[in-house]
Amino acid sequence: MSTLAEPLDVADVATQFTVVRRRHTGRWLAAVVVAVLGVVVAQNVLSNSRFGWDVVGQYISDASIIRGLGTTLFLTVVCMAIGTALAVLLAVMRLSSNPVVNGAAFVYVSFFRGTPVLVQLLFWFNLAALYPVISFGIPGVHLDANTLITPMLAAIMGLALNEAAYMSEIVRAGILSVEWGQSDAASALGLTKGQTMRRIVLPQAMRVIVPPTGNETIGMLKTTALVSVIAVPELLFSSQVIYARNYETIPLLIVASLWYLAVTAVLGVGQYYIERHFARGNRNLPPTPIQRLRTFARAITTRSTR
Amino acid sequence: MTAVPTLSPAASTTTRPMVRAEQVRKSYGPLEVLQGIDLEIATGEVVCLIGPSGSGKSTFLRCVNHLETIDAGRLWVGDEIVGYRQRGTKLHELSDREVCRRRTDIGMVFQHFNLFPHMTVLQNLMLAPVTVLKEDKEVVRARALALLERVGLAAKADAYPRSLSGGQQQRVAIARALTMQPKLMLFDEPTSALDPELVGDVLAVMKDLAQSGMTMLVVTHEIGFARDVADRVAFFDGGRIVECGPAAQVVTDPRHERTREFLAAVR
Ligand SMILES: Nc1ncnc2c1ncn2[C@@H]1O[C@H](COP(=O)(O)OP(=O)(O)OP(=O)(O)O)[C@@H](O)[C@H]1O
Ligand SMILES: [Mg+2]
Where, by residue number, does the polypeptide cross the bilayer (chain A) (predicted)? Predict the structure, then answer.
């Protein structure tokens, strides 16, 4: 009785007993089931000749596919950049106490979130029907809308303006997530409103803004496929042009998908490191996978030398 | 609309106090938080504001550096009317930029420190002198390091605020305000968010500052500090100053029943 009540000395326990680890039977079982299913699916996909893996291999680095990929990346970067810049402006406007400024931003966001982006793209593409001549109110200065609004420009406008509406809500949430005390402290030090926003609020808001922005970027990468309807030669359109010629529809769609997947994976890694950058100043950042791998390697080498 | 304060002819004679409030009023909607505050703080003087929660102490402090605008009355800091510039017989409302410029003479320390968590301690100290006052970086760095030394945190220059204890953070916040070389320091309950054993370090820094001749306006619940360090104590209740006098007298021998009740409750 009395021996049971005595507290166990931990150091003592380690020397006296052999520790038996828990077995995690369920976890092992689940892993086996998943592995078997994976092998079955892979086997099926690779052995079905109609997937046309040889055709996939033939076109994966085809010049027009790579050019299409370039256009897709260009559109993603440009539209995200314009969209984000506009979004910061809209978010600051939304937080303004001036009802006209605030209202204008609200109407913008409502309009662009309330209509399908595909419709917006078609609108920009057909702008010439609405305004055949774009003048600037200055006599003699005018442009022909048909030559000005190229498919590429319509694509950029459609995607970027739409993205700004979504991103502005993300930026606004980020700004609101920063405590009021931060702005108070900055004001008390004599920083102007603009300096406070740039130096104090936005950098801290980034922690909230970056993760959903990563999703938006990945979303944008895939949404660029929509501009194939207005004949911008991006990745999907380039694949379509090829399979319209050789009828290898499925293999070429796989080619496009593999490229989308590859870029998404790279973006995911980039997002991880950007998030860590903006989380600086926090205690206990977990190590990155690479750091973890290094620690692991070091542990193994020291163990083997012992 | 803000009532435009009128000029008092007395304002131009004798040595100016650092802060002068005459019948300062401030409302939030229907709630009148400051109901006519009169207070003068001489250069080099330390004045503690005590009083129950919601009595308007923080609001008054925030009015002094124009984080809030007053609705009526007159408020001077140094030679200047808070929020206005005098040109002959006219008062011009200040632009945002001018308001910011004026604030650089006033340091403020908050209950929750409000350090910038994405910057190191040294960056926190250097930000405003470099970006607002456009001072030379190396000059500011040297001053910042000396101030960190003075508050006992020289070793923490490159640490991030979240890795510091509350007491350390508050001392950094004081050093940050001092790096601007202000003429007046405002403290809003600087020790209220701290664990009891960390309060002493912060109060020691404030006492050191008071002895160096800094003009200080301190909202605090540390009655002992008020008695030992302040020149005068003002007791706030319901948006008014009920009693104001030499620190020792107000704390040990208050004239008003309300002050007596409050002091009995906080001890
Ligand atoms: N921005 C605001 N909007 C509306 N009411 C406010 C605002 N700031 C303060 N108040 C109200 O004004 C009153 C005085 O607040 P103040 O913060 O000045 O009190 P205090 O004396 O500092 O109290 P405490 O000791 O709790 O800090 C309180 O009733 C508070 O609710
Ligand atoms: Mg307060």
Answer: 28-46, 66-93, 105-125, 145-162, 225-244, 250-274
β-pairing, B215-219 with B184-188? parallel
Average pLDDT over residues B54-71: 95
Check CB contact under 8 Å for A281 and B118. yes
CATH topology of domain A55-305: MetI-like fold (1.10.3720)
Q: Which of B204, B214, B112, B77 is CA-nearest to residue B151?
A: B204
Q: Domain map of chain A by residue range?
A: 55-305
Q: Which residues of B touch A (CB under 8 A)?
A: 65, 67, 96-97, 100-101, 103-104, 106-108, 110, 112, 114-119, 127-128, 131-133, 160-163, 173, 176-177, 180
Contact indicator for B114, A188 with CB cutoff of 8 Å = no
- Provide the H-helix boundaries in A143-248: 145-148, 151-176, 180-188, 193-195, 202-223, 235-246
Task: List CB contacts (< 8 A) between A204 and chain B.
Answer: 116-118
- Tell how strand B46-50 and strand B215-219 pair up: parallel
Residues B56, B236 contacting (CB under 8 angstroms): yes
Q: Do B96 and A281 touch (CB under 8 A)?
A: no
Q: Where are the domains of chain B?
A: 115-182
Cα separation, A200 vs A194, in Å, equals 10
ipTM of the complex: 0.90
